[in-house]
Amino acid sequence: MKKGLDSIAVHEAGHAVAHILTGIPFKYVTILEDKEKDEHGVLSLGHVMYDKPKTKEEWEKYSILDPGEFDIFFKDDFIKLSGFVAELLYKGRASYKGSKGDFRHWAGTSLNKLPEKLSSKYQSFLLEYTFNVLNDKTTWSNIVAVTLALIDNDTLSYEEVCDVIKKDLKNPVLKMAVKKYGL
């Protein structure tokens, strides 16, 4: 197994499971390296391809300070942070390198629209919330199952991720793989 592939798979599985939890579908999740840099100049080692990604102009139409639109930002921010938090739970330490693009997108959509004092409180709350959701035994089991499927297949569709999550974690093959990869 390529060194570091497990961390990339955990990171991307975190995003994929967060999509499932928020009810926001995606096209696919992959641990394959991108050939081109994203709009922030970051070369991604893996990614989740949104089903209907919002453009910067579309994000400008929404206001995080509008209670009727807050959930749009919250769900998206939760998804963005889930890769970082999944890696943190897996490694026991933060890895900002693999989350550069996630943090830049987060800052460009919701954080820059909040007053500074509220922004720092929102960041703290969202990180703590995301940590607690992903650290839940069932959610973490889902992340592990998707991680192992990504290591085996490189890329999974939304439907395939849903199928992986539906499988029983008591499966002896899955248990053996969990032990093998140390997840």
Keywords:
7% strand; mainly alpha; 3 strands; globular; 183 residues; 61% helix; three-stranded antiparallel β-sheet
Walkthrough of the structure:
The protein is mainly alpha-helical and 183 residues long. It has a single domain (5-181), classed as Methane Monooxygenase Hydroxylase, Chain G, domain 1. It has helices spanning 5-22, 56-60, 70-91, 100-109, 116-135, 137-153, 158-166, 172-181; strands at residues 26-30, 47-50, 155-157. It has a 3-stranded antiparallel beta sheet with strand order 2-1-3. Helix 1 (5-22) runs antiparallel to helix 3 (70-91), helix 1 (5-22) crosses helix 6 (137-153) and helix 3 packs antiparallel against helix 4 (100-109). It is globular. The mean pLDDT is 82.
Task: List the topology elements.
Layout: H1 5-22, E1 26-30, E2 47-50, H2 56-60, H3 70-91, H4 100-109, H5 116-135, H6 137-153, E3 155-157, H7 158-166, H8 172-181
Antiparallel strand pairs: 1-2, 1-3
Helix pairs in contact: 1-3, 1-6, 3-4, 3-5
Strand proportion: 5-15%
User: CATH homologous superfamily, by name?
Assistant: Peptidase M41
Mean pLDDT comes to 82
- Helix percent reads 55-70%
Coarse structural class:
mainly alpha
Pick out the low-confidence regions: none
Cα(first) to Cα(last) distance is: 14 Å
Shape: globular
Number of domains: 1
Instruction: Provide the gyration radius in Å.
Output: 16 Å
Q: Assign the CATH architecture.
A: Up-down Bundle
| CATH class call | Mainly Alpha
How many H/I helices?
8
Number of strands: 3
